[in-house]
Design a protein that fits this description.
- By secondary structure, the chain is mainly alpha-helical.
- It has 16 helices and six strands.
- The strands form two sheets. A four-stranded mixed beta sheet has the order 3-4-6-5, with helices on both faces. Strands 1-2 form a two-stranded antiparallel sheet.
- Strand 1 and strand 2 form a beta hairpin.
Length: about 375
């Protein structure tokens, strides 16, 4: 278990309960495979390197820091001391050598972010501070420290800048399209990076129930007496498995403008990881170290990500993913299944079978394959 306390800048930080510490832990230990593969895809996007290099020198990081310094409250031993203790505790557990500056910003919308180019800063809103209890907040701060350890702050800052820029140049057709292509790719990566940071938050807080409560509150507000974790997770299962191909398309359209995955999806993903052998190995002290990162094979990481996607598609209950699996497996009768899936868009009845119920001749007469 972690030490009961430690010295930091002359003062003692004593966590409310003992937690295991992870000296030298690499972000690879908790990063979601989809996070790494999405980042690889982002870096391969045409024009991204050019934009990245240009913005790295142009983004007003100094101005950003001055903005929060002048118009927010900096967390310290004198201000929001309970948040300061949680921040230092999370950095201690995840072994982040330099504690990032942290600010509380007046905003009723519950939110937190880790931004910055050379040195990350963490910002939490008053809406979030007022919504969460101590253990829930500890998981959120660990989440943001995970972003810092993974180096996500840089890309997050670029995403914020480009999103604002896209609004300003919306009147320029080609310019808007070019920027939105990169913004869309950045959002896809950032949604996956949130799954990684959720895992880091669990490692920092080491209280799955608190992590679940925090996600439920983000979805339903401060009404825990009216909510139930099992029912909340059942929503995630219903969201994934329910509906037909129309719903699969609508899910994609709904998530495209978002920077975060849906709360139920995050809760289900985190619970699945918390019950996995990978999580238990980390808790037992067996995890990748930062000093081994230089020896990590990029191709191995990419293969691991590809394998994860393949497994996810095969095990997914989503109608579109099941269709993709059937196509890969050469299943019969796919034409009829696709037509049935999209009948709702046109409002027409399925043409796969005659109205009198008699079988129709042709390839679609193949007996349907049983579903798993």
């Amino acid at each position: 278990m972690s030490d009961d306390g430690r010295q930091n800048n002359g003062s003692e930080n004593v966590p409310s309960r003992q937690r295991r510490r992870f000296p030298g832990i690499s972000s690879r230990a908790y990063e979601h495979p989809a996070d790494r593969s999405a980042l690889v895809a982002l870096r391969k996007l045409s024009g991204f390197d050019t934009v990245f290099k240009a913005l790295s020198g142009l983004l007003p990081e100094r101005s950003l820091r001055l903005l929060f310094l002048s118009d927010s409250v900096r967390v310290s031993d004198q201000q929001f001391t309970h948040l300061n203790d949680m921040l230092r505790d999370a950095c201690y557990i995840l072994d982040l050598e330099k504690v990032p500056p942290m600010y509380v910003n007046q905003d009723p919308q519950p939110n937190a972010m880790c931004i910055g180019l050379d040195e990350p800063i963490i910002v939490v809103t008053t809406g979030l501070v007022e919504l969460l209890d101590e253990e829930e907040m500890r998981a959120v701060i660990g989440h943001e420290v995970g972003h810092a350890l993974s180096g996500h702050a840089l890309y997050r800052t670029i995403l914020l800048f480009l999103t604002n820029l896209a609004v300003r140049v919306a009147w320029i057709p080609l310019g808007s399209i070019a920027i939105m292509a990169i913004v869309t790719a950045l959002r896809e990566w950032f949604r996956k990076s949130e799954l990684s940071a959720d895992r880091a938050g669990l490692l920092a807080g080491q209280d799955l129930r608190a992590s679940m409560r925090g996600l439920m509150k983000l979805a339903g507000g401060n009404h825990l007496h009216e909510m139930n974790v099992d029912a909340f997770l059942q929503q995630a299962d219903e969201y994934e498995a329910g509906g037909d191909l129309r719903d699969s398309v609508l899910k994609i359209l709904n998530v495209l403008p978002r920077t975060h995955p849906f709360a139920t999806v995050r809760a289900a993903e985190l619970k699945k990881w918390a019950e996995s052998r990978d999580y238990q190995r980390i808790m037992d002290g067996h995890y990748p170290r930062r000093d081994e990162d230089k020896d990590t094979s990029v191709s191995d990481s990419f293969r691991e990500s590809a394998a994860h996607y393949a497994t996810s598609v095969k095990s997914s209950k989503d109608p579109l993913m099941k269709l993709v699996t059937d196509i890969a497996g050469g299943a019969g009768g796919l034409g009829g299944r696709v037509r049935r899936g999209f009948d709702g868009f046109t409002g027409s009845p399925s043409s796969d079978a005659p109205s009198d119920g008699s079988p129709r001749n042709g390839s679609d007469d193949t007996p349907p394959r049983s579903e798993d």
